[in-house]
Specification:
The structure holds 2 protein chains of 2 kinds. Chain A is of the alpha/beta class. Chain A is built from 5 helices and 8 strands. In chain A, the strands form 2 sheets. Chain A has a 4-stranded mixed sheet with strand order 1-2-4-3. In chain A, strands 5-6-8-7 form a 4-stranded mixed sheet, sandwiched between helices. In chain A, a hairpin with a 6-residue loop joins strand 7 and strand 8. Chain A is globular, with a radius of gyration of 16 Å. Chain B is about 75% helix and about 0% strand. Chain B contains 14 helices and no strands. In chain B, helix 2 packs antiparallel against helix 3, helix 7 packs parallel to helix 9 and helix 10 packs antiparallel against helix 11. The two termini of chain B are about 15 Å apart. The model of chain B has no long low-confidence stretch (mean pLDDT about 95). The chains are: A alpha/beta, B mainly alpha. The interface between A and B is medium-sized, with 31 and 25 residues.
């Protein structure tokens, strides 16, 4: 049975604050094998990739009033790499992706071209998600120049890079 | 900002490096330097430093300023240091070469030239080490560790070189003279083996898997390769300095280093085979096919080294051994990768801003591989012929081989300039609205 440390960031979110550092501090405190139970006022989609990088699988369940309980359980596999969040982690509510791309079997530069083309069609604040084989380091500056934010990281198997891109709102 | 930005002066570094390469080839074709003269003659020192600092180190620095940020997914510590570093390296190399020419009586005597060159080179490489070291230190994942060990080796190389320069000017006292008398193999191994080879290996891990769509080599595996290579350099520099200090012979130290070096090359071969086996992109591009010839040359140097040691003629054929290392392995790899890197960076610089908004060519569309293949083929054949000419003690045959290498390199440079000028891109795709034609010598964005 996994033990969970409870972290409730709903008061911080309701006050308009940034709970990211609180969550990261809680992760530092976790003992080996311990998980994290997070309460939030929305489904914290961008956090999933960050936590996957740190070796946690997630399961999210909706509670009453649109609030969410998310269990982050340590996975057996070691984390592949540290996540690369765009500068200034924005923990505002990222909606579920409107577009999902699986670019894993495309030859470069097709994955990059498709992501940029799809991103340009997003409405304000909307997101898209993409699966890739590699960390798209050359895509990041292009996203940044166009005003997009992104979050990404390898999934726990280390073979798939999960990227979420959010249009400026 | 994350590490995938264009480094502004990378093309400038490449252009400077290729200019020095042409100078080195001209010297060899004209019969100046080894093998026409003794291995330790001033003319040979000119040739060796044009190749190792002007061509290989400058090209390596330019590539590292672009790719170390990619290895660590972090921006370069300071983009502003890169151009002053190139200026100092170039000025330092020119002063050093002038100093060697004065030693050989080709210029009027100027004992201050060598120390001046050393000081400028220490400053230039110091900026490079500072900038790249601080960048890689933040996230030392697999390939970035190779770069860190390479930079440490560069420190050792530059230190030895500076001591030599001051000793040749007569300003280094008896300790400096002792280091100069015995330390040259240590300087050469730290430079060629530690700085250039380990760094080229580290960068190749990421570039190869990036361009062939292969999973990265596991950290644990590449760490073993690096450990063997790092120990080889550490044994050479540490053990060698100790041996020089107590006036002991260097043979034992060099044998241990050679064994570790061979282990490193074998492990690197195993890592490369893994990348090629696990690649998603089945068809090999020109730069990969040519890189294979340089890996074959690396294996060739290992075989040649073992053969020469076992028949006891390594000191006699050191020139041939070094030539194959420098031109077959290192220069071959750098030329093959330059061809791809220039195409890739040019593509990114030109079409990045309009990607997804207008039809853009593929990276491959910027290059004309079929035409370029013949120049590479001429280059490698000439290098191998040149190695044989050196082994056979045929200076005229060697000069013909050097002339053929020059032809190959001219062809490759011509292809690279065509890539930079987008001359092989079909006209409807060449410059869509919003794309900006790149400058030949630096990145505009």
């Amino acid at each position: 049975m996994t033990a969970y440390l409870d972290v409730d960031v709903r008061p911080i979110l309701r006050a308009g604050g940034e709970p990211f550092s609180v969550i990261m501090a809680a992760i530092e405190r976790l003992e080996k094998g311990q998980g994290l139970r997070l309460y939030a006022t929305f489904k914290p989609v961008p956090l999933f990739a960050v936590m996957a990088d740190k070796g946690f699988a997630h399961s999210a369940s909706a509670m009453e009033g649109g609030e969410w309980e998310v269990l982050f359980t340590p996975a057996a596999a070691k984390p592949a790499q540290v996540a690369a969040p765009s500068n200034g982690f924005d923990f505002g509510a990222w909606p579920d992706p409107r577009v999902k791309l699986d670019n894993r079997d495309l030859e470069p530069p097709e994955p990059m071209v498709r992501i940029l083309a799809a991103a340009d069609k997003l409405g304000p604040g909307e997101t898209l998600s993409a699966l890739l084989r590699r960390e798209p380091v050359f895509l990041f500056p292009q996203l940044e120049k166009r005003g997009f934010r992104w979050l990404g990281g390898f999934t726990t198997d280390g073979a798939t890079y999960e990227l979420t891109v959010r249009a400026p709102s | 900002m994350i590490g995938g930005n264009m480094s502004r002066w990378t093309m400038t570094y490449f252009a400077a490096a290729l200019t020095w390469l042409l100078a080195a080839l001209a010297l060899m074709a004209a019969g100046i330097g080894h093998p026409a003269t003794d291995l330790a003659a001033p003319d040979t020192l000119v040739l060796v430093h044009v190749i190792c600092i002007g061509w290989l180190s400058t090209a390596m620095c330019g590539a590292l300023f672009q790719f170390v940020p990619v290895l660590v997914a972090r921006p370069l510590f300071s983009e502003r240091l890169t151009l002053p570093a190139l200026g100092l390296l170039t000025a330092g190399l020119i002063a050093l070469l002038a100093g060697f020419m004065a030693l050989g009586g080709r210029l009027p005597s100027g004992p201050w030239l060598l120390p001046l060159g050393a000081v400028l080179l220490v400053a230039g490489f110091g900026l490079v080490i500072l900038d790249l070291g601080l960048t890689a230190w933040l996230r030392p994942t697999g390939p970035a560790r190779f770069v860190l060990v390479g930079l440490a080796s560069l420190c050792a190389t530059v230190t030895f070189g500076a001591v030599f320069a001051f000793a040749l000017a007569g300003w280094a006292g008896p300790v400096g003279d002792a280091v100069l008398a015995r330390g040259i193999p240590l300087h050469a191994i730290a430079g060629l083996g530690g700085w250039l080879t380990l760094t080229a290996m580290g960068v190749s891990y990421r570039l190869l898997s990036m361009f062939m769509l292969a999973p990265d080599v596991e950290d644990r595996q590449s760490r073993l390769t690096l450990a063997a290579g790092g120990l080889a350099v550490a044994a050479t520099v540490g053990g060698g300095a100790f041996a020089v200090g107590v006036a002991m012979r260097l043979n034992a130290v060099l044998s241990v280093a050679a064994l570790l070096g061979l282990t490193c090359a074998a492990l690197y071969g195993r890592d490369l085979a893994g990348i090629f086996r696990n690649r998603k992109r089945r068809e090999l591009e020109l730069n990969m096919r040519m890189a294979i010839l340089s890996f074959a040359s690396l294996a060739g140097t290992a075989v040649l080294g073992i053969a020469l040691v076992s028949i006891g003629t390594l000191p006699l054929h050191l020139g041939a051994f070094a030539f194959l290392t420098v031109f077959g392995w290192l220069s071959g790899l750098v030329l093959a990768k330059l061809y791809k890197i220039v195409a890739f960076l040019t593509w990114l610089e030109t079409y990045g801003p309009v990607m997804g908004r207008a039809a853009t060519p593929r990276v491959q569309d910027l290059a004309a591989e079929q035409r370029a293949t013949k120049w590479f083929a001429i280059y490698y054949l000439a290098v191998w012929a040149g190695t044989l000419a050196l082994l056979a003690g045929e200076p005229s045959a060697f000069r013909i081989a050097a002339a053929a290498m020059t032809v190959g390199v001219f062809g490759i440079i011509h292809e690279i300039i065509r890539i930079r000028r987008l001359e092989d891109v079909a006209s409807p795709l060449r410059l869509p609205a919003g794309a900006v034609a790149p400058h030949l010598l630096f990145a505009k964005t």
